[in-house]
Write a structure and sequence with these properties.
Layout (H helix, E strand, L loop, with lengths): L1 E6 L12 E6 L6 E6 L5 H12 L5 E4 L4 E3 L1 H12 L1
Parallel strand pairs: 1-4
Antiparallel strand pairs: 1-2, 2-3, 4-5
Length: about 80
Amino acid sequence: MIVTFNKLPKEWIGVHGPYYMVRAVDATGKLEVTQMVQSHENLPEFIKGAEKALKEQCSEVVFHNGLWTKTRDEIFGKEKEAHQ
């Protein structure tokens, strides 16, 4: 499963957000889960839900149309550091 994280078009953004679209696609490319979120801090929660729904583990998160990528471990490592 690959997750993409991209900024929403300006016309879609309300006064207080959400500001980003997160999309998870399974390995076949046929199933997907999509959600609008406030920030990258919502990624761990989204990934957990998408993994449960698609019954696949996240392999990679692609940010802003390919500007950079992170692995699932990097995303969840950040979550652990934030709670310490």
